[in-house]
Structure formats: structure tokens, C-alpha cells
Amino acid sequence: MTEIKNIDNVSNNSQKNFMLPVDFHCHSTYSDGSYSIEEVLNMAKANGGKYIAITDHDTVNGVAKAREYAKSIGLNFFGGVEISVTWEKNNLVHIVGLNIDENNKILVDNLNNLRSNRFKRGEKIAEKLEKAGIPNALEGAMKYCNSTEALSRTHFMRFLVDSGYAKASNAFDKYLAPGKVAYVPQTWASLEDAIKWITDSGGIAIIAHPSRYKFTRTKLLRLIDDFKQCGGRGIEVISSSHSKEDANNIAIIANNHDLLCSMGSDFHTIETFRTIKVGINHPLPNEQCKPIYTELGIKHEDLVIS
Ligand code: AMP
Ligand code: MN
Ligand code: MN
Ligand code: MN
């Protein structure tokens, strides 16, 4: 078994070798990341990354630009997306699409449609915040956001934090999470549709950060069952949302259910609760794991951080 090391402790090159130069989940300003495509890719490269996918929420609009820029700085790039899914009535689940074709019209059209309701939801979130005594939240959140259709709860979080209404660690629990004062439910894509859009455009569908949903084991296995029946093939084992114990547990579930094991920083910004740097990830915790990178044609010997 390979031990998972905390990236925060990585301080010299020999320790860096415990990390893999791959990252199949991160965000840019095309959704709720704080950095531009170029900045994210530059950081990934500076951290020692070699293989990367940028997976913005419900959009592939930044992928062509990212592909070109990655090539210009010598990074191996895969098209990516993270699709918001409503599963079993009202559970929000994220599905990463890896190696998608950003020019696939059905994928692009459906994602544009999915994102078109984000601003309307944002207006409702702002109304609720106003009732809770927090004015001008829509304008405030939009200051952190590049386009109306990208508007996310993360942008409201940044506004709430910078205006002193909450801390980064509690803005969701105080205002934005399900059941809290400014929560506005939204119906996203069905699991079946999201996986179909991904696979029809040549991508691999992956369950993002499974431990974050706090599902019971039975419920997680039901999600995996539905996911596989729709053609899903991978699951994130390594994620900044996962503890070492989470990674171990998900690795075992992945092996039992013949799922490819993925790894992603889920990088949004510097200085959050997330601990994995963009561009590099911990190795899989279990030698039986089937790594997703093998499926992408990446060889083990390519995975040394230089
Ligand atoms: P949305 O797609 O607008 O519903 O926003 C979801 C995004 O909010 C996720 O992609 C995360 O980046 C962020 N998020 C969700 N829960 C939390 C949390 N507890 N703390 C910080 N960010 C969160
Ligand atoms: Mn996000
Ligand atoms: Mn997510
Ligand atoms: Mn993400």
C-alpha cells in the first residue's frame, strides 16, 4: 500500500516524488475558479504537473483555449467538464466528464441550456439574502464572476466573506447550503443525460468527490449502480474533499465495482479548505486500483514529477 502524504508537507524534491503529475479536476474563471485558464495551467506546470484536465461547472467554453495554451507550455491536456446532476429527487451530485470533445454540439447545447438558469437562481438567492438583512448580494456576487450564466454559490460565498458577513469556512453552513436561509433549490441534469452527453462526445464519466455527499453506504452503492447502468465508468478516489480514510474506502468500493480510479485537486482558489495543489495528486492508496490515467494512454513511467 502506498501511503498518502499531505501535500502541505511536501517541501523538497524527493518528497515530491510521492505525488503524481496528474490532475483531472480543477476550475477556472469559466465557472467558479478564481484564476484564468492561463493562470491555472501555469500554476499546474510550476507545481510539477504534466497531465491536466480543466473541468469547469456545466461548461466546455474554456476548453479550446485551455487546450491551446496547455500545448504552448508543454502540458498534456484533456478536455473536461463537471456536470451538476439532480439524482433521486433532490440530491446534488457532480459528474466529471474526462476527455470530452468540446466541439460536440449536443454536449455544448445541453450545457448552455443547463447554465441558462444560473442567473435566475442567483436573483432568488440575492432576494433571500436581502430578507436576511444582506443587501446588494447580486451585484456583489457578480463582481467575482465573469458571466451571468456562470453565477455560482461560490461567488456569493466570496461576496459574503469579503463583506464580512461570513467566513470561508462557514458561509455555506450559515447561508448557502440546503436548508439554510439563502438556499434556492435547482433541478440540474438527470444522471442519465449527463452521462450520455459525456460518453457520446467521447468522454469518460466519473463520479466527483463521492465522500462529500455524505450518503449512507447503501445510498452511495445505489448511486454507483445507477451510474454504471447509464454507462459511467470512473470514480474519484483522490480529491481535496477526501480524507485519507475516505480515499481508502472509495478505493475499495471502486475495486469491488470495477470502476476506474480518478484523482483531482478540485482546485478553485488558493487559501481554501482544500489541501491538494493544482496539477499534482496523491497516488492511489491501493495497488488493486485501476488508475484512470492508464485508460488515457498514460504510462506509469511517465508519472514522475521533474
Ligand atoms: P452551485 O453549482 O452554484 O450550486 O455551487 C456549487 C459550488 O459551491 C461547488 O462547486 C463548490 O465549489 C462550492 N461549495 C459547495 N459546498 C461548499 C462548502 N461547504 N464550502 C465551500 N464551497 C462549497
Ligand atoms: Mn465549484
Ligand atoms: Mn464538485
Ligand atoms: Mn469541482
Quick structural gist:
The chain has twelve helices and nine strands. With 306 residues, it is an alpha/beta fold.
Q: How is this fold's topology laid out?
A:
Elements: H1 13-16, E1 22-23, H2 37-46, E2 51-53, H3 63-72, E3 76-78, E4 80-87, E5 91-98, H4 105-115, H5 118-131, H6 137-142, H7 153-162, H8 171-176, H9 191-200, E6 204-207, H10 217-229, E7 234-239, H11 244-256, E8 260-264, E9 290-291, H12 292-295
Parallel strand pairs: 1-2, 2-3, 6-7, 7-8, 8-9
Antiparallel strand pairs: 4-5, 5-6
The structure holds adenosine monophosphate and manganese (II) ion (MN) (3 copies).
Features:
single chain; 306 residues; alpha/beta; TIM Barrel; DNA polymerase, domain 1; 2 domains; six-stranded mixed beta sheet; 36% helix; 13% strand; globular; disordered N terminus; binds adenosine monophosphate; binds manganese (II) ion
Tell me what the structure shows.
The protein has twelve helices and nine strands. It has 306 residues and is of the alpha/beta class. It has two domains: 7-115 and 188-302, Metal-dependent hydrolases (TIM Barrel, Alpha-Beta Barrel), CATH 3.20.20; 118-176, DNA polymerase, domain 1 (Orthogonal Bundle), CATH 1.10.150. The strands form two sheets. It has a six-stranded mixed beta sheet. Helix 2 links the parallel strand 1 (22-23) and strand 2 (51-53). The longest helix has 14 residues, at 118-131. The protein is globular and about 55 Å long. It binds adenosine monophosphate (AMP) and manganese (II) ion (3 copies).
